[in-house]
Structure to design on (346 residues):
């Protein structure tokens, strides 16, 4: 037993020394680079119901390796200009794509569509939001209750986020469907929610500790974000204890949220629309929109207006390296949105 312990200790010391040597080597050869900005610190604030929301009147330049753009939040915390008229508007909800990650505000789909439609197009995009958070946000915002059309953008990451209690390092609300009723666990009650999560196995704990101690940001860049090692070992184990349901089980909840949101819109005289669009890997053919057939079928059965734009973004020039739309992508999305709104308001 003592011999095995000594061998294990020697192996651990050797591995640590090797990693330390790699770190020193990288420190020597790697040119210093500016640390990317964090939009959550600069433009968002915590919220007990939504998890996070826009920080009112925040503004500043946001710098990433691939882009440099200016952000201005209005008094409501949205990345939108100050408005006095909301009646007859189009309210657009979504994540960082709608928010305009990587582009200036006048280059976004909502700003371009507003000019083309000659009516207010409200940008209600929030980085990291899935449809469940967007629906809760809609309920808290009286300015959208006079909108003519409400649009929710949907992509492949939304189901994954809804199946998790955390996103982007922040607790998020968890909405689940039980006995045909939607029940909400707010982020403020996260500890109660975590108590329902099965305990980590010893293997999970071991790999989680390894990730925490060894997989620094620089080492992650060496291993590669999309390698088999990163994807199947570190990311999979890291998320297993936070995941609360599989993606297929999330679809009925997603559709129930759409149905409730549609009912809210009908009560104010608005029309509710869902638009599905692809991510970069889908345009390359290396990934698919997960559970799409189930989403499409259940939305159709529930009477949800779902529009499929997945084949409309096959041109890869719409996506720069970080996977978000560039100005060309936003212009293309704006033209699709303009045509859709025009058709729906005839």
């Amino acid at each position: 037993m003592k011999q095995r312990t000594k061998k294990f200790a020697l192996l651990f010391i050797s591995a640590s020394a090797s990693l330390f040597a790699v770190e020193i080597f990288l420190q020597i050869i790697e040119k210093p680079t500016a640390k990317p900005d964090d939009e959550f610190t600069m433009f968002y604030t915590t919220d007990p119901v939504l998890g996070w929301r826009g920080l009112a009147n925040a503004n500043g330049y946001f710098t990433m390796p691939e882009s440099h753009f200016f952000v201005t939040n209005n008094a409501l915390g949205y990345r939108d200009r100050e408005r006095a008229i909301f009646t007859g508007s189009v309210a657009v909800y979504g994540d960082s794509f709608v928010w305009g990650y990587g582009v200036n505000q006048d280059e976004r789909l909502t700003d371009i569509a507003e000019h083309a439609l000659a009516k207010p197009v409200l940008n209600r995009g929030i980085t990291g939001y899935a449809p469940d958070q967007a629906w809760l946000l809609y309920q808290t915002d009286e300015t959208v209750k006079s909108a003519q059309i409400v649009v929710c953008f949907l992509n492949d990451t939304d189901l994954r986020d809804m199946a998790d209690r955390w996103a982007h390092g922040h607790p998020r609300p968890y909405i689940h469907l039980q006995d045909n009723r939607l029940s909400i666990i707010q982020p403020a009650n996260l500890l109660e929610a975590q108590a329902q999560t099965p305990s980590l196995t010893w293997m999970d704990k071991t790999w989680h500790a390894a990730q925490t101690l060894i997989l620094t940001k620089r080492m992650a860049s060496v291993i590669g974000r999309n390698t088999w090692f990163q994807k199947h070992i570190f990311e999979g184990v890291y998320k297993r204890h936070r995941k609360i349901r599989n993606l297929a089980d999330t679809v009925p909840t997603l559709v129930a949220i759409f149905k409730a949101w549609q009912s809210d819109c009908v009560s104010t005289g608005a029309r509710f629309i869902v638009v599905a669009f692809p991510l970069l890997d889908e345009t390359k053919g290396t990934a698919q929109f997960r559970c799409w057939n189930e989403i499409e079928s259940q939305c159709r059965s529930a009477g949800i207006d779902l529009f499929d734009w997945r084949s409309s973004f096959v041109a890869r020039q719409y996506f720069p390296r970080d996977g978000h739309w560039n100005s060309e992508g936003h212009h293309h999305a704006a033209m699709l949105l303009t045509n859709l709104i025009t058709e729906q308001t005839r």
Remarks:
- Confidence is low (pLDDT under 50) at residues 26-35, 193-200, 211-242.
- The domain at 46-192+246-344 is CATH 3.40.50.1110 (Rossmann fold).
- The chain has two domains: 46-192+246-344, 200-241.
- Residues 107 and 333 are 11 Å apart (CA to CA).
